Amino acid sequence: MKLISAVVPCYNEEENVRYFYDEFIRNRPFFEENGLGYELIYVDDGSLDGTAAEVKKLAAEDGAVHLISFSRNFGKEAAMYAGMQSSKGDYVAIMDADLQDPPSLLPELYGYLMEGYDTAATRRTTRTGEPKLRSWFARRFYRLINRWSQTEIVDGARDYRLMSRQVVDAILSMTEYCRFSKGIFSWVGFRTKWVEYENIERVKGQTKWNFWSLFKYAVDGIVGFSAAPLRIASVTGVLFCAASVLMILLTIVRKLVFGDPTSGWPSLVCIILLVSGVQMLCLGAVGQYLEKTYLEVKHRPIYIVKETL
Ligand code: UDP
Ligand code: MG
Q1: Eight-class DSSP state of 256
Q2: 8 with 20: CB under 8 angstroms?
């Protein structure tokens, strides 16, 4: 019998734990028809509410429900990693607890794996229910990162996907600390079938993202999968050097040939401000990479488990 594992990262989702289970379990006839067993791994990412207690209640009713509880909030990336690490399934699905990733799509995703795809991934085609400005920035981000990075980052791709064991093992072999899954999923390769669906709003509770956290996430993505900002910094440096050499020559020629007095400290101040501004910007870009390198070389664990069930 083949096994499907569902990994469900949860952060303060006590209202959704059971909802999700009820929806997921509707696939039971499908599982039986196809000779599939299932396991449901809820990863409690340091929730402050009763998420873990809810999962324990479920686990008492259904032995296929498992719980991994973190010692604090480590973020969804860490939760997905932990869930995948402890999954035993021949196929592994990653699903949000808030039902934005409809479990009713599982049979379709499974169908594509049977056709020979290694991954069936989902992407949303609409951004309804999202502030206009946020959508605009999101689109800019995808344009930018795809121009700068060799790894394709698909606009609107969700983390909801069904993967074969081989793909999961490949993802687990990437043990980096600063995890940007949208990039990691794509980086490992394999044949991926994209399944599109309209955005669904979460049933209960609130999204954990705000504009600032999304911005930081975008920067993480760029730093994790592209070195373009570093290259741009070097190119800017070269351009500014060239410009200053030209200006020095021009000033000397003007002084010697035309006897012009070298005038104008306002222009000088402008140039100093511009150049030092660009320098700070480039230094900042380098700093971003240094920060990530620092985090990686410390080799801290990606998550710490408090309790498992
Ligand atoms: N999540 C998590 N750790 C976090 C933040 C979120 O495990 O630090 C989980 C959350 O419980 C949910 C999923 O990740 O199941 C997606 O989170 P959310 O719905 O807030 O994101 P959105 O769907 O708005 O992108
Ligand atoms: Mg959500």
Answers
A1: I
A2: yes
Q: What is the dihedral of CA 192, 195, 199, 205, to 10 degrees?
A: -60
Report how far ligand 1's centroid is from the alpha carbon of 10 (Å). 7
CATH 3.20.20.70, applies to 2-209+301-308: no
Distance CA(128)–CA(44), nearest Å, equals: 28
Which residues face 284 on adjacent strands?
none
Report the distance separating Cα 248 and Cα 245, nearest Å.
5
Determine contact, residues 129/198, Cβ cutoff 8 Å: no
Give the predicted TM-score (pTM) of the model: 0.83
Nearest-CA residue for atom 16 of ligand 1: 96
Task: Using most ligand atoms within 8 A of CB, pick from 21, 72, 77, 98 the residue to mutate for ligand 1.
Answer: 98
Question: Within a 13 Å sphere around the CA of 32, how many CA atoms are in the beta-carbon half?
Answer: 5
How many residues in total does the chain contain? Answer: 309
| Band of residue 113 on the pLDDT scale cut at 50, 70, 90 | very high
Question: Which band of pLDDT confidence, cut at 50, 70 and 90, is reported for residue 5?
Answer: very high
Q: Of all atoms in ligand 1, which is nearest to the CA of residue 100? A: 23
**pLDDT tens track for 37-52:** 999 999 999 999 899 9
Phi, psi of 207 (to 5 degrees): -70, 150
Task: Judge whether 88 and 3 are in contact, CB under 8 Å.
Answer: yes
Domain regions of the chain by residue span: 2-209+301-308, 228-297
Ligand 1 surroundings by CB, under 6 angstroms = 9-11, 13, 45, 73, 75-76, 79, 96-98, 100, 202, 207-209
Summarised one tens digit per residue, pLDDT across range 180-222 is 988 999 999 999 999 988 877 777 777 778 888 888 889 889 9
